[in-house]
Structures are given as C-alpha cells and as structure tokens.
C-alpha cells in the first residue's frame, strides 16, 4: 500500500498567507461595501518597467521565427544573463564570482526551499525566530525537525534564534552546534539588517564550526545604509561557507514573471564533495530552466535604463515605507524596519495577541497586515505591514489608523 511522507503531517496549520486570505474573503463576503486595504502579503503592485517589457516583446518575436526560435535552454540559465549578474551584482561591487557559480531559477522561494535536499536529515538547522516560513517548512517536509511541541510552538531538533527588540533584532550565535544556518537580510518579516561587522561574526562562526550559511538576500535592492552588505560575499571568507539567494521579484517587480538566482561558490567543499556540482546535478535532474523570454526580461534590468527604472520603483516603495513608519509613530506605535527593507514591524498594543490585532485592524479599519506570530513564536506581539501598496492606499491606511 502506498504510504505518504508523514513529515507533511507535522506542518503547522496551513500556509500563513492562505489563512489571511480566507479571513479577508470571509470579511468581504459579510461587508461587500467596505474597501479593504491590503498591506499584508509582500507582493509588488507597480507594473514591469518599460525596459523589461521591450526586451520580453523582442524575445517573444524571436520565438515566433524559425531562425531564432529556442527550445529547452541550459538548466543553469543562459550565459547572457549569468554574465550580466556576475558583472552588475558582483564585479561592480568588487566581488569575484564566476558565471558557473550562478544558477538562474524561477524563484528564491523554490531555491531556499529546495536547497536543503542536498543535506543529510541529521543536520541541525538554525533559523531566526520570527522567520520566513519556507526555511522551516521545507525542513519539516524533509524530516529534519523532530517533534513539534504545542506548548512552545517549536520543533525539538530546530535551533531557534530569537530576534526581538530585546536584542535589537540581531540574532545571537547559537550556543549549540548547528550545521545549516538560514539568514535573511534585509529581513523578512522584521525589516531589520546586520552591519558588515555583525555578519562577519556569522561567517567566522560557520568557518569554525564547519557550518553552512544559507543567505537570502531577496530584499537587497532596498538597502540604503552604507555599512549594510548587499551580498554576504562582501565578507572575507564567505565564499567558503555561504550560499546566496537573490531574486528579481522585489528588485524588478518579477513576482508574476518569476526569475531568481542562487550563487553556489566552487570553494565550498563538504568532505571533498563540491556543493556547486551537487546543486548542478540536482537542477539538471529536477529543473528544466527558466523561459528564454523571462531571462531576456531579467537581462534588461542590467542596463543603465533598466537600473534607472527599477530604482524609481524601489524609491516609490521606500517612500511608502517612510509614510507607514512615520504614520505609525505619530499614532503612538513602536516601529522597526522600513529603512533598508519594504517591511515595517510594529509592536501590537499591550493586551492583544498578533492575531487579535489582525482581527481588530481588519474589522475596525479594514486594513490587512500579517500577524507576527505567523512567522514564529517570538513574532508574537508584533505585526508586519508592507510598503508594496499604492501610494494612495498607503496614505489612506495611515489616515485610518491615526
Ligand atoms: N525570500 C524571502 C525572504 C521572501 O520574502 C520571498 C518572497 O516573499 C522570497 C524569498 C520569494 O522570492 P521569489 O518570488 O523569488 O520566489
């Protein structure tokens, strides 16, 4: 008889955003006249920039001609895109990355979720708490997390690193030995960052403990402060101990187009086995590459025109973040993030849980956010708002709250 993977039964609740969507749909059914402002899910709202639209149109035309039609592309991504990534995201920042270390994919969600496949289930994982849920859930599915305890809301084989206002949202190095460390910077959900000096401690820890850092930099384009690294490879020695995940989703509004990339340095050897070769093998077996048209679109981001246009969109979201931060502060809330990231992390008023605050905000102000507890037990008492809405709805939301 067929048996299912019972690890899936250990997953907690449904995916956070489906629960939110259901609550909002129920509310709208009861109150069809109310205009709900959605500042919950981290999805962009501005259209694709003209440089990308033009490049994708051209690519579609090429696909419609016998001479320029292309079928399956390289699983790792076309050289034209990998070379631009190397040049613009690394070389211009003084970082040496080879084209063969870049693996183009259809999303950082899949890559961060899939990468754990390369490791034995006996490895210990460390995640921040709160955390982007994909890191934990993908390890739960793989059977790496042990038993879940209702009381603590924790898995017994996972090392949770709290990031709260008590430690300034800076995770402490684990006291126990861990093998795989997930870091997301700028952080989703807290919107906070680490300085180069703080990140160096993690690289040093990984080297000393033969651990691997899985560094998710999906929000890198939002960084404005000087001392905040745009890539973990700005830290000396990181190429020996870190994988980096990047995405065009938030950088260039590709959430619906789907393109990202993962850097797997050739230096990383585990017991003499090259992780670069292992990931290459995994991708060639399970993935057939990102569409040609999409990759031509991503390539257009790496032009003067493309950079200028995505910069304008990011500035638009940054301004929304400022409006939210200042609006909430004016209304008496304590807020974090929103400077180097599109997320604003606020403390919910005393006496309410994150979900109670969610319900109150939806019922009374018709605003949707994301309860902090959905990202982990230490997210309880916090709430996330995103800067990805329209300017009008962001302003209106702040007026309603005030
Ligand atoms: N990583 C983090 C931290 C995210 O917040 C998100 C999306 O919200 C992703 C990855 C997913 O990126 P992609 O759209 O490339 O799958």
Structural account:
It is a single chain. By secondary structure, the chain is α/β, with parallel strands linked by helices. The protein has two domains: 6-47 and 305-401, Aspartate Aminotransferase, domain 1; 54-302, Type I PLP-dependent aspartate aminotransferase-like (Major domain) (Aspartate Aminotransferase, domain 2). It is 36% helix and 15% strand. The chain contains twelve helices and 17 strands. The chain has helices at 16-30, 50-63, 79-90, 108-114, 133-141, 196-209, 248-252, 275-286, 292-299, 304-330, 354-365, 391-401; strands at residues 37-38, 102-105, 125-129, 148-149, 154-155, 158-162, 180-184, 212-216, 242-247, 260-263, 269-270, 273-274, 335-337, 343-347, 367-368, 370-371, 382-386. The strands form five sheets. The chain has a seven-stranded mixed β-sheet with strand order 2-10-9-8-7-3-6, sandwiched between helices. A four-stranded antiparallel β-sheet has the order 13-14-17-16. Helix 2 (50-63) packs antiparallel against helix 9, helix 3 runs parallel beside helix 9 and helix 4 (108-114) crosses helix 5 (133-141). The protein is globular. The chain starts with 15 loop residues before the first helix and ends with a helix. The protein binds pyridoxal-5'-phosphate. Residues 42, 107-109, 112, 132, 184, 188, 216, 218, 247, 249, 255, 260 line the site of pyridoxal-5'-phosphate.
């Amino acid at each position: 008889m067929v048996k299912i993977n019972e690890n899936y039964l250990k997953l907690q609740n449904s995916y956070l955003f489906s629960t939110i969507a259901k609550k909002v749909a129920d509310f709208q059914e009861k109150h069809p006249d109310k205009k709900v402002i959605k500042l919950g899910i981290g999805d962009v709202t501005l259209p694709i920039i003209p440089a990308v639209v033009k490049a994708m149109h051209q690519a579609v035309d090429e696909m419609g001609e016998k001479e320029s039609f292309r079928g399956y592309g390289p699983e790792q991504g076309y050289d034209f895109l990998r070379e631009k990534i190397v040049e613009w995201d690394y070389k211009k920042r003084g970082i040496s990355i080879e084209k063969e270390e870049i693996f183009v994919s259809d999303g950082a969600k899949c890559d961060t979720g899939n990468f754990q496949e390369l490791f034995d289930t006996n490895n210990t994982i460390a995640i921040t708490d709160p955390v982007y849920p994909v890191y934990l859930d993908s390890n739960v599915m793989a059977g790496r997390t042990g038993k879940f305890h209702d009381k603590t809301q924790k898995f017994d084989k996972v090392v949770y690193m709290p990031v709260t206002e008590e430690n300034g949202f800076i995770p402490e190095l684990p006291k126990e030995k861990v093998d795989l460390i997930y870091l997301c910077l700028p952080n989703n959900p807290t919107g906070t960052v680490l300085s180069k000096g703080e990140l160096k401690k993690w690289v040093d820890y990984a080297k000393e403990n033969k651990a691997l850092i899985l560094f998710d930099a999906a929000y890198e384009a939002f960084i404005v402060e000087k001392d905040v690294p745009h890539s973990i490879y700005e830290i000396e020695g990181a190429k020996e101990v870190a994988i980096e995940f990047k995405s065009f989703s938030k950088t260039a509004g590709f959430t619906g187009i789907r393109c990202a990339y993962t850097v797997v340095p050739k230096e990383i050897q585990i017991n003499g086995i090259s992780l670069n070769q292992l990931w290459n093998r995994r991708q060639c077996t399970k993935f057939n590459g990102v569409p040609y048209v999409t990759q031509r679109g991503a390539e257009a981001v790496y032009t003067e025109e493309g950079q200028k246009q995505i910069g304008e969109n990011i500035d638009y979201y940054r301004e929304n973040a400022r409006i939210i931060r200042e609006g909430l502060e004016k209304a008496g809330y304590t807020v974090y993030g929103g400077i180097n990231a599109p997320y604003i992390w606020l403390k919910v008023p005393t006496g309410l849980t994150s979900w109670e605050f969610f319900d109150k905000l939806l019922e009374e102000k018709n605003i949707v956010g994301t309860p902090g507890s959905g990202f982990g037990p230490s997210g309880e008492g916090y709430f996330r708002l995103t800067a990805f809405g329209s300017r009008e709805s962001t302003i209106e939301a702040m007026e309603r709250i005030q």
